[in-house]
Structure formats: C-alpha cells, structure tokens
Amino acid sequence: MSDKLALSQERTKLFEDIIDGVIPKRVPVSHNLPIEFAIQYAGKDLAEAQWDTSLLPEIFEKVCADFYSDTLPVLAFRFPSFYKILGARNFVMSSSGFLQHPEVEGLALEDYDAFIESPFDCIVEKVLPRLYSELDKDPVGKAMTLAKAFTAFNDDMGAAAMLYDKLIEKYGYARVNLFGGMCEAPFDFVADQLRGFKNISIDVRRVPDKVEAAVEAVTPWMIKMGMQPNPTKTSATFIPLHMAPYLRDKDFERFYWPTFKKTVDGLAEAGIKSFLFVEHDWMRYVDYLAELPENTIMMFEYGDPKLVKEKLGKKHIITGFYPISLLKTGTEQECIDKAKELIDILAPGGRYFFGFDKSPITVDSVNTRNLQAVLEYVATNANY
C-alpha cells in the first residue's frame, strides 16, 4: 500500500468515526478555498482562468501544497461558460471577474397559481425564459442553446472532477464528498431564483396562502434535486440556508420549517446526509435543528458555539464558527488562540471537524500566513 493511500484511509476514518459517534484520533480539518481565491493566490488572471480549465491544475496544486486540509481544499462551484451561453440574468460575470447573483424575479406574482399547479411546467415555460435570455426563443433555438450549455457544463465540470480525483490521490486526502449533491430549502428556492428577496418578503404578508402552497409544491422537486446516484457514508448533499434569519418566528414556523424538514427527512430516508450551511444567526432556531435526522452536518456562520454544542453536539455533526475576518485583522497568536477556544468547546465527545464560518472569496480578505498557521496548528495539536 502506498503512503498516500494509507494517509487517505487514515483521514477518511477520522470522518467515519465522527459519523459513527466514535471519538476520532484527532480533530479533522475540512475547509474550502473557492476558485476565485485559488486563482488570485496563484497569481493568475481571475477572468481568464475561469474560462480556461487547462490552467486549473497549476492553480489548484499551489493551494493544495500551501494550505493544510484533510479533505480536498479547492472547489470550482460554478464556471461562467454555460451561464454566458444561456444569457443568464441570475448569475452574471462582473467586470472584476467575479460571478455574481443579482436580485432576480423569475416568477411573476400572477404566476403563483401556475407554479402551485405544476412547478416543473411553470419553471420550463415561464421562469427559465425570464432568467435566461437565450431560452426565450422558438423551440429549435431553445434546444440548440441547451445543447451548447450542457456541453460546456459537462466539459468544464468534468475537467474539474478529473482534477479533483488526481489531487485526492496525490495528497492523500480523505474520500469525503460533502458536495455530493445540492438542493435548497423549498422557501429559499422560491426566494432565491423565483421571487427575489424583496418580493418574497412582501409576499409572506400579501399572499401568504400562495407562498405556503408554492413551497409545498416545490418540496418533492427539492428532494429529487438533492438525490445522489451512489451515496456513501462520507458523502452529503449541500444545502445553503438563506432566508430563515430574516423571517419573523411565526413566518419561519409556517413557511420555512415544515418543508425544509420534509426535504432533509426525504433525503435521509434515501440514505443521504445533508450538509447545511447555517448562514447568519440561527440561534433562535437551534431547538428546531435538533429535530433533524441524526448526523446532519451543520456548518455555522454565527452564533453561540457553547449553546450549539449543548443542544446539537450529541446527535449532529458540527463545524464552522471560526471567523474568517480574524485571519485578516488578528495576529498569528490571536488566530491560533481562537482555534484553541473553539476546539475546547466543540471537540469534546467528537462529532466535530474544524472549519471556518465561511470561505474567503478574495485572497486579500485574509492574511494567508495566519490561515496557514491556524490550519497547521489544528492539524498537529488537536489530538484527543
């Protein structure tokens, strides 16, 4: 057995132990440095490198070599090629080279009834042509656009996937895939891509029955979207949670929680764990999160780690909380001390792996030496 294969198996066992409720040998480290950060760190042009996947091996190699992680630390989540072909209005490349998600309205207020009756038909016939200008064509034009976009998608994502496998093998990373699938909480889906933040905030007061019916109607599609062809013990479906902290408690209880829980439960019934990015501050809803299926992975952005450990730490897997902002403003020792503090709170009893509260998008949003120091400290000092 090669040294790298043995290392990969050892690292994978750390995560298997966490899932099995066994205290692992040490606290594993898992973080994600997105493609924009990686390109800047490697000194490449941000706009050019996102269009040319042949540049990615050199870029990702440098990140893997310089930043410790027990899992693959790089991820190309989106490429601009297929969005450009589609004429996307919901994901637009800015002049600075960042793919941005502007406020969009794909579903008009008067379309609620059609969406409730058949979400799929409504999305195909009404929403997609509004969000993607190149799909607002005759059937032949639509078909050609979709063919080109899917080809670009498969080419770019396929090239990235092959590179990931090579890097996992070369660096002995754990065979863990926390992004084995992706979906959204039904309310977030209606808000993000269909109505927009402003409109949905008005809708819950103006047409609450329609909002409730819409999120119910789309729930089976979110479960289907989050399915994985071959789920494993160490794979998960990623679900970013957006709107809940901006809702009143009574609106959360009515519009958000029931269908979100139904989605996570539906995935669990199929043997699929959910990896939740618990965005913003969910401390009002910690008791709700405790009701989710065992071994739901939760990455917290803000909140009280002691409360989360107390309420969730025996049933669920916790990560996050480490403030990326400190890596920019703190001294190296202050950054290491924060890691010690969080490990002391979250590591006892297991069911925890070290991670940050969010991913750094720009290379200048952190002091990269502080980032390296924290990762190296946890890797060598967080033994049980």
UniProtKB/TrEMBL annotation:
Annotated Pfam families: URO-D
Source superkingdom:
Bacteria
Q: Which GO terms describe its molecular function?
A: uroporphyrinogen decarboxylase activity
Uroporphyrinogen decarboxylase (URO-D) domain: residues covered: 175-355
Picking any one GO biological process from the record gives:
porphyrin-containing compound biosynthetic process
Q: What is this protein called?
A: Uroporphyrinogen decarboxylase (URO-D) domain-containing protein
